[in-house]
């Protein structure tokens, strides 16, 4: 356990997610005239935007809490229970040259605060899909693929080394496993 826990974080996967955030803002005229309600889109009152963003996610195993209790030896077999993978948002970057807008002449252009808000929504959308993305399973597989050869150099046969993790993740676990660093937002 001491050899493994000396490495605080073992980075095992990196995903670069390219997302285009779109927003369509139509102006409508609503009201009633002679008791008849109406809801009409103004022909020259729309604004549209497409914002390309790249979000870089890295998965790692945090070994700072890894102890001897996480290792079971049964004869020449070794069973290791690893800490659960964590995900860090390393960066999110807007491709400013790739932003496309359409603003009709009756409307004002998008404000910087609106652009920032749309970009934040895009990053949140990416983070919401982490469980379906496969990065957690990739992190687990890559952790085992890195540790098993290391442990085999210590005299254990690869076929006798079992690496497991504590739990399966679902959406309710996301706030606990995702960390955001160095983002433009």
Summarize the structure.
By secondary structure, this protein is α/β, with parallel strands linked by helices. It has helices at 2-5, 112-128, 130-133, 135-152, 174-177, and strands spanning 9-33, 36-62, 71-74, 77-82, 85-94, 100-103, 161-165, 178-180.
Number of helices: 5
3D shape: elongated
- Please tally the β strands and state the result: 8
SSE string, helices as H and strands as E = HEEEEEEHHHEHE
| Major β-sheet profile | 5 strands, mixed
Strand content: over 45%
Average pLDDT level: 82
- The rounded Rg comes to 25 Å
Helical content stands at 25-40%
Structural class: alpha/beta
For the termini, the CA-CA separation is 38 Å
Task: Give me the oligomer status.
Answer: single chain
Describe this entry's structure for a reader.
This protein is α/β, with parallel strands linked by helices. About 25% of the residues lie in helices and about 45% in strands. Strands 1, 2, 5, 6 and 8 form a five-stranded mixed sheet that branches. It has a three-stranded mixed sheet with strand order 3-4-7, covered by helices on one side. A hairpin with a 2-residue loop joins β3 (about 70-75) and β4. The two termini are about 40 Å apart. The model has no long low-confidence stretch (mean pLDDT about 80).
Write the layout of secondary structure elements.
Layout lengths: L1 H4 L3 E25 L2 E27 L8 E4 L2 E6 L2 E10 L5 E4 L8 H17 L1 H4 L1 H18 L8 E5 L8 H4 E3 L5
Parallel strand pairs: 4-7, 5-8
Antiparallel strand pairs: 1-2, 2-5, 2-6, 3-4
């Amino acid at each position: 356990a001491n050899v493994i826990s000396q490495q605080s974080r073992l980075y095992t996967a990196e995903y670069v997610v390219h997302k285009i955030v779109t927003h369509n803002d139509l102006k409508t005229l609503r009201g009633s005239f002679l008791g008849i309600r109406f809801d009409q889109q103004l022909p020259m009152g729309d604004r549209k935007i497409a914002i390309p963003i790249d979000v870089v996610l890295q998965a790692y195993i945090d070994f700072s809490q890894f102890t001897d209790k996480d290792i079971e030896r049964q004869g020449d077999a070794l069973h290791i229970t690893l800490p659960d993978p964590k995900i860090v948002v390393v960066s999110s970057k807007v491709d400013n040259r790739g932003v496309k807008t359409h603003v009709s002449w009756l409307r004002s252009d998008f404000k910087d605060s609106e652009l920032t808000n749309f970009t934040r929504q895009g990053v949140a959308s990416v983070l919401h899909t982490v469980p379906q993305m496969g990065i957690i399973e990739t992190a687990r597989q890559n952790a085992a693929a890195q540790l098993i050869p290391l442990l085999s150099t210590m005299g254990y046969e690869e076929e006798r080394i079992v690496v497991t993790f504590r739990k399966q993740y679902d959406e309710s676990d996301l706030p606990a496993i995702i960390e955001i660093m160095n983002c433009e937002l």
